[in-house]
Specification:
The protein is α/β, with parallel strands linked by helices and 314 residues long. It folds into two domains: 3-47, Arc Repressor Mutant, subunit A; 58-311, Rossmann fold, CATH 3.40.50.1360. It is 47% helix and 11% strand. It is built from 15 helices and nine strands. The strands form two sheets. The chain has a seven-stranded parallel β-sheet, sandwiched between helices. It has a two-stranded antiparallel ribbon with strand order 6-7. Helix 14 (285-293) links the parallel strand 8 and strand 9 (299-303). Helix 5 (87-105) packs across helix 6 (118-126) and helix 6 (118-126) packs parallel to helix 7 (153-164). The model has no long low-confidence stretch (mean pLDDT 91). Residues 61-311 form the Sugar-binding domain. Belongs to the SorC transcriptional regulatory family.
């Protein structure tokens, strides 16, 4: 590069990066077009005359977020840096970051759908008290028995709505029923049918992504047993969202457990404009990957460990 040309590029870069002048102001000072100034700034970077450093400890997680968004065409990714964090601190941080993201995107929402599980409990616990009285929170699935009520969709819907000063609807039905006739009778109930229909039309859905075979809350609380898991493996199940089991293609599998669920199915969840998946833990990478690849969720809140595996898997 000619020294005269180099000097001109340095001069333009100094005015832009050090003096804070706009491209239009620089163009007027030098007497060239704004587009030429823009080109010169690009040339200065490509020639190594300008190097830009982002001086923030958040650059690590922010870079992972952008890579996830680009690779999986996500609306957004939220990545928690887990360095020096104990497991219980990771749970809290993921819940807090999920809550902050929900607070931001829910400002224009009228209806929020709530699934169930521990990760969503952490999000609700970390959601700040706000005044969002126009919002109604709907359960996306029925209840999970008498135990562990704090992670049921109805309870989570109530608690989130209370923090928002909004309203909650309730699905007075179990998540899983024992036979088709019971499901038919319950889903023909006008109240239950109405809540499920409205839950399909929410603006934002909050869900977990899990594997029934690894650290499964459904197995932990006794909602599925060893025979169920054997059957799921034989059917090629890879993960579940809202207690709907999917295979490697991201499709809901034709199995008895899926037929027994009272709640919103995966096809309807995919139609919801914003589906936020709160999912982390390296044993859940495969179901998370499938959920991302097949657009079962379009926002992911996770950890750096999971993000790195999702980005670098073969």
């Amino acid at each position: 590069m000619d020294r005269t040309d180099e000097k001109e590029l340095v001069k333009i870069a100094s005015m832009y990066y050090e003096e804070g002048k706009t491209q239009a102001e620089i163009a007027k000072i030098i007497g060239v077009s704004r587009s030429l100034v823009s080109k010169n700034l690009i040339d200065a970077k490509e020639a190594g005359l300008v190097e830009i450093f982002i001086n923030s400890k958040s650059v690590y997680s922010a870079t992972l977020e952008r890579k996830l968004e680009q690779k999986y065409q996500l609306k957004s990714a939220v990545v928690v840096d887990t360095m020096d964090l104990a497991n219980h601190e990771v749970d809290k941080m993921v819940g807090r970051q999920g809550a902050l993201y929900l607070q931001k995107v829910s400002k224009k929402a009228a209806k929020i759908g709530m699934s169930w599980g521990k990760s969503l409990r952490n999000l609700v616990d970390n959601y700040p008290f706000t005044n969002q009285s126009e919002i109604t929170v709907y359960p996306l699935i029925g209840g999970m028995g008498d135990d562990h009520v704090d992670i049921h969709s109805n309870q989570l819907s109530y608690d989130l709505a209370r923090k928002m000063r909004g309203r909650a609807k309730y699905l007075y039905a179990p998540a899983l029923v024992s036979n088709p006739q019971i499901k038919k009778d319950l889903t023909e109930n006008s109240t239950i049918r109405s809540v499920i229909a409205e839950a399909r039309e929410v603006d934002i859905a909050l869900v977990g992504v899990a594997s029934p075979f690894e650290e499964s809350t459904m197995a932990e609380i006794g909602y599925i047993d060893d025979s169920d898991m054997k059957s799921l493996k034989e059917k090629g199940i890879k993960g579940d969202i809202n207690s709907r089991f999917f295979d490697e293609t991201g499709n809901e599998v034709d199995c008895q457990l899926n037929k027994s669920v009272i709640g919103v199915n995966l096809k309807d969840i995919k139609k919801i404009p914003t589906v936020i998946g709160i999912a982390y833990g390296t044993k859940k990478v495969l179901p998370i990957k499938i959920a991302l690849e097949h657009q079962l969720i379009n926002v992911l809140v996770t950890t750096d460990e999971v993000a790195n595996e999702l980005l670098h898997e073969a």
